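Dear colleagues,

As part of the handover before I leave the project, I'm documenting each prediction I ran so the next person doesn't have to rerun anything. This entry is a single chain, and its sequence is reproduced below.
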Amino acid sequence: MSDEEIDKAVKEAAEYEAQDKKRKEGIDAKNDADAIVFQTEKAMEEAGAALDANDKAAVEADLKALKESIAKCGDELTDDQINELKAGKEKLMNSAQKLFEKLYQQQAAQQGQAGPQAGPGPQGGAQGSAPDDDVVDGDYREV
């Protein structure tokens, strides 16, 4: 390549750099939104009937809104579409976090009510013996 061709290629690359960054930001926003939709749906499916109906409805509404935003997007996203996807993702993440936080608190309370596990503990059920009784230090030598 001649020096003129190299200079021309460098100038073209600089011109298209901003467009490439914008396109990458749009693709990343769409992929992030798709991922959070998938993760939330999967978590809700696994939790099943344990979820509070009112909180579940709020999360489902946010899911539906974000899915619609994703569906409206084409290959080239505008700044408004990117911002809409990011806002929808944040809203869904917040509502889902509240929902699953309540679920985990309920599960922890249920486990706390069940009391300690019956049967031997991690010490093999040996009663009255100190955990360090059977410890033997060993020396070794590298050959």
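The helical segments are 3-47, 53-72, 79-114. Residues 3-47 form the longest helix (45 residues).

All the best with the project,
I.
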